[in-house]
Structures are given as structure tokens and as C-alpha cells.
Amino acid sequence: MSKNNHLEASLKAMGIAPEGVPKMVEDAEGIVAGVQAILSGEHSMSGKGLIYGRIQSGKTRAMIASSALLFDQGTKIIVILTSNMNELVRQTYERFDAGLTQVSVLAKEDDLPGAIIRNKIALANTDTDAKLMLVMPKGAQALEKTKEFLEQVDAKDYPVVIYDDEADQASLDTTRAKKGKGIVADPSTIYKNIELIRGAAGSHVFIAVTGTPNANLLQTEDERPDEFVFILKPGDGYVGGKDYFEAEEISANNFMVEIPADDQTILAQKDMGAGIPSSLQRAVISFVFRATLANYKKIICEEGKGYQFLCHPSHKVLPQGNATAYINTILDQLAYHLSGQDTECKAIVEEELTLVVKEHGLDSAEWIPLLKKEALSLLQSAKVVQVNSTTGSKIVYSSGLNILIGGNSLGRGVTIPNLITTYYTRGGGKVSYADTLHQHARMFGYRQALLPYIKIYITENLYSRFRNVVLQDERLRDFIEKRTAGSPIPIVIPAKGIKPTRSSVLPDCQLIDSGQKYPNPIDVKKLSSVHGKVFKTAAKLLGTENSDVDAVKEASASQKDKEIDVASLKEIIGLMELEENGSLWNPDSLEAIVKALYGDKIKIYLNVRTSDRKVAEGVVGGSSRSGILYGEELTRGLAQKQPTLWLHSVSSPEEGGVRFVYPTLILPTTKDVVIINNV
User: Which pTM was predicted?
Assistant: First the structure.
């Protein structure tokens, strides 16, 4: 029997336009090349790769296309693990089932035990082109079924590819932090079950798929999915962080409408006596008229799905319920007004209508009466749907107006077609997690045609945090694309109040913030043995042939803040063998940190000094105080625009006056914070 062309059929089934086919094929080939490199034994660590896409940029389509190409190249079994949220599970299964028309796609609801025998026979028959795909949610029972099914169909006899969609959400071991503190703990349930699935698969490649890989990249070396990292670039028509958050100030951003802090708190109050938040009233009315105009002009990105308003007030049910009640009231008031009755919303209606027609360069006398008439017609079928674990509501879009209210169920993975207005007040406390916040950007996606109609209602604090997370994401992508394969990947968090991810899944990482950095503890014996080599290297960099300590110190004083490159910094630190002091003093990690903070072409200031210090008691062969800077030296270094490395030649009476070298690195206070793997 001839083999099917799964990729060709898949591209056709997904409705990829001819002009989009080359990119889809290129993406599929890039992903499959990484998979084949691991299967061939080219890599030797985790057996894991990463597809790093943008929020709502087409990661699912890339998984479908690359799965099809893998099937074409002989892979027989592919497993898709997806979020355990019902809406996302349904959406993911439907997409794979529709996109892989020549493949048996099984889901949690199917009778897996009843399908074992026929799948086992078909897979083993070399005369057929039998392929198998499982799309399963990351819930304990579903994962257990997946493991048992793979065992029963003899999955160990075939290479298996496992895609872990939304890989940073539930897949990681949430006991990592405890274990890092020496606490004995069993692995968390979902992580343990996924590991059992990997065991049942035998020879396999595990591909993490996410737009927010902070948590994944901060795992230990044998867990990080970085044996290949495929940066999935969006296609034409994508609208993302650069479009929405380019302006530094919210007031300078045409997409944004600032929500007053008081309105944010009203939604969370048990007593609804404070009345409807004015910003929510304005947002809903604005949405109705913007959607009406888009509908009248037939501007739409996805046919038959209407126009959407997303209200994301909190992960808690109470604020979502309040928002639902308020929005229904607003829609009723608007309907009364448009039918000729006098209501409280009259002033806001006129203001928002005037603003809409002005933004689109339309004649007010002609368009305002028209939009009022058309809006009243659309309002009749407007749907208000609260989506969370309590309501269990399934999103069924009307062809008119749909207002979705929710938290976690609408905060990750779910694609909301034709989303025009976002009302976002979730969070704003002392700390936000960068990956969680970024996943809430449901306004990202292929929305270019609708961009002139889009508005985002958000507080100033949340806008600032969103913008910082977007900047971090851009820098991380840029770094990964330029990095040498196998080198550490830093996670840059450019603002206070933002953490890269939840701490429970971070096993072994170090916070590198601005200020003075020095190794502690240290091995005086080791650092005395390399003293001569370090100062000989320093003398060369300072342009003096005499490597005597006093001569090097004098040369440094005459060339205060001598500039050296990153390679020289690595050479000096490498001589000291300080890796046990954490990732900062590992030469490769230090290079990654410095370049991530200050750019590829950064120079480092070099200075030399001497001191006599007492070695602290209780520190094995080391000192917790030697080499720390004070006064003018520290003040000057913190005020610089680039790092400063100080090399101290320290004499310790406790060690018989022997001199040892002790480094101190100053990272200027104006720079960012970095989380990096401790490698």
C-alpha cells in the first residue's frame, strides 16, 4: 500500500492559503530536524526540545504540521498533552482531529481499552500506513489511561514523539523548591504521571510547547527542554506585544484606556452598592459601537464567530459574577437608550459614539444615527457568558456580540476569535508572575484587520507590568536566537514586582540583581595558587610586563576603569574556578548574564586593589568579608553604565600572610534582574 502524504493533506485540511504554505512547511521541517537530532543520539541529556511561540501565534498549527511530517517520515505514535481546562481540551482535540484527516486521533472520551487490540495490530503491520495520535488532558486519570494504553499497544517498539502543550503550566514538579531546601518530597502527581508516560514510550522525544517558557528553562540541566529550541515566528497579520505595548506610558498608547484604581476594587466587593464601575460601563458601550461598525463594514478575521468582549477581572468567582451582573445591566440600559428611552448611560453613549466616528474619520451626522440603529439590532442577540469551573459553560459563539467573563478558564491557551475589547483588572498586587501575566494576553493573535477597532481597558500598574513582560520576552527570544547551542539561557525580568514564575517549580536558580557581587564562601588555598596567573593576565590587559602585585595595582590606578571585553572577563574568572559559588561565577553563565543585561558588545571596567583582611571564622578556608567594596569605589561602580570587575590581592594573617585573589563584580543599579540556571 502506498504511503499517505500526511503533510500535504494536513495543510489542505487546515485551510492554509497557498502563500502561507512555505512558512508552514519550513516550521514543520525545523521542528522535525530537532526531533530527528535527538532520536539519532546527537544529544545526550534530557531528550527534550522546546517550541517557543508567541501567544496565539499558531503553535497548534505548527504541532499539527510537524506531526504530519513526522508521520510521513515514519513516526507511528504521537502524544499531545494539553491543559486540563475543558474549553482548551475540546479546542485542541477538534483542531488535531480536523487537521490530521488520515490519522486515528483518540481523546479522553474515547473507549481507549476497547481500541487497544486493533491499534496494536495495525501499528505492527508493516504493510499498512497505520498511525496513532492521542490528545489527552494533563489530569491524573487521563494521564494514567494514556500510560496504560501506550503499554498495551507496545509503544516501546516504536519511536514516539510527545508534545507537551502549555508545558509550563501543570507539567513541572511543584516540589522542586522543597527539595532544593533538603526536604524529602514525592514528585507532584502530574509530573510523576508524565514521567511514567515517557517510560511507557521507550525511545522518544519530549517537546515542550509554550509561549512562556520561563519555568521550563529554569529547570536543572537534565530537565531543561533546550536540546533544541525552535523559535516559532508568527505569520503575516499577527498582532502582539510590540503592537500593543510599545509606548512607555499608557497615556501615549492609542490602544489603551486607563481604568481608575477605584473601579478595579469595586468588582471585587461583595456589596454591589457602589454602583457600576464607570470604566466597565464605558468599555461595554464602546465595544458595542466598535463591533457594530466592524460588522457593518464586514471587517472580520474569522467568519461566523461574531465579535468578542473579554472581561478578565479575577481568578475568583465573586468578581466574575459581579461583572456578569453589571454587564447585563449596562446592555439593558443601552438597549433602552437606543430605543428612545432616557437612561443613565446617555452621556457615555454620545461620548463613545463621537469618539468612534472621529477615530475612523467618519461624518458624525451620517454615521451616528446609522450606528445607533445597527447597534440596537445587534444587541438583541448579544450573549453574556461566564466561563469558569463553577458555571462549566462552554463557549458557543453567536454571529453577533459575545461577552465572555472569566479568569483561569479564559487566561491560557484558549483562542478568542474576533476579540475587539479586553477589560483586564486581574492582579496588580505586590508581585505578578511574568509567565501567568503574559498568558492573559488573549488580545494577541491574527487580528490585523480588526486592529483599528481594538481597545484594551487596563490599570496603569498592570499596563506597566505587561509592557515589562513583553520586553523580557523579546530579549529572551533575541538571546536564544543568537546563543551558542548548549549555552545557558538567562531569564530576564526587567522590573520590580515581577517574578519569572511560581517559586514552587524552581529547583536550582539564583537571583542576580543589581549591586555588588562577591563569591562566598571561598577556598583561600585554591585562590592563592592561582594568584600569579590571574595577575599576570591582568598585567597583560593593563599593558604592563611586570605582573608584580604593586606594579599591576599602579598600572590600574593610572588607567582607572580600564575597559576589557567579555572574553577577557571569562578568562580571568575561569582561572579562579569559582563555579561552586553559583552561576554568576561560572564563566559561561557569567557571559550569558552580562550579555543579557548589557548587550553583546558590552565592555567591562577592570580595576585592581590590595587589602589585608582577617579570614572569617567558621568558613572552611574562606572569608565572607574579603574583597567587599565600600565608599567611592562602590559608589562610582554603581553609577556606571557598564559592569566593573575589581581584582583584590588579599593578604590574610591567618594564612601566614599568603596572598590570594578575590574578585568583586559590580552590576550597575540601573540594570535589570536576571534569573539563570545554576549550571
Answer: 0.84
